[in-house]
Design goal:
Layout (H helix, E strand, L loop, with lengths): L3 E6 L2 E6 L4 H8 L1 H9 L2 E4 L5 E2 L10 E6 L11
Parallel strand pairs: 1-5
Antiparallel strand pairs: 1-2, 3-4, 3-5
Helix pairs in contact: 1-2
Length: about 80
């Protein structure tokens, strides 16, 4: 084994070192999304759509999706 794994972030292949975590994968794929995850304005889900912590270690072939939160202004009313 060469000490590298391939994961997918928003359909983008990312090659990482073995033992890398979700946060590292997001940062490697798109640093601006990584900043949004750190700020709480986005979150990461696994291939099943379940939210996962950025500190979770990854296995090769993992599929991740970064979801940017939609925020309403205080003047927006619910239907």
């Amino acid at each position: 084994m060469n000490g590298r794994i391939r994961v997918f972030v928003n359909e983008r292949p990312v090659d990482l070192r073995e033992g890398a975590d979700v946060g590292e994968a997001v940062h490697a794929a798109d640093p601006s999304l990584s900043e949004k995850v750190a700020a709480g304005s986005a979150y990461v889900t696994d291939g099943r759509g379940i939210e996962i912590d950025p500190a979770v270690r990854l296995a090769g072939g993992s599929i991740l999706r970064v979801v940017v939160r939609s925020r309403r202004g205080s003047s927006d009313a619910d239907a």
